[in-house]
Amino acid sequence: MADHSGVDVVIVGAGPVGSALAIALGRSGLQTVVLERDTFPRDKPCGEAIQPSGVAALAHLGIDLAAAGGWPLKGIRYRMPGHESVTASFGQERLGYGIPRRRLDELIAYAAASTPGVTVETSVEMTDLAVGPAGVTLETNRGSITTPVL
Do the strands 32-35 and 9-12 form a parallel or antiparallel pair, or are they unpaired? Predict the structure, then answer.
């Protein structure tokens, strides 16, 4: 594992939430390390639909789902076998997007890794952690790292 002296925050997991948090922290000037046990792209079962508010949040992070190959969604329908369905339109000016989860994870993790102050490391599995006077020490399959914030 790389030298992580001076790291402010360690995030375990480079999924959408971990990577988005890393982008925000990096933009605020904090040295941030994201540890991900898998490599990208990775498969993960998911509905693969992003609501308009999620599209706006991703755009704020610099991720354009249309440019990334997403397909526009004008609304959503929920249904269960043997039951009625419920349908809702997003409205005239709003679109959601469909995008495979493996592509979405890769886009957000790449955006995080491209953010100044952020390092994303893949194939790193956390095996243990301990809280001490210096902060939190994580043991991983590639060594240990101590951080004030986990």
Answer: parallel
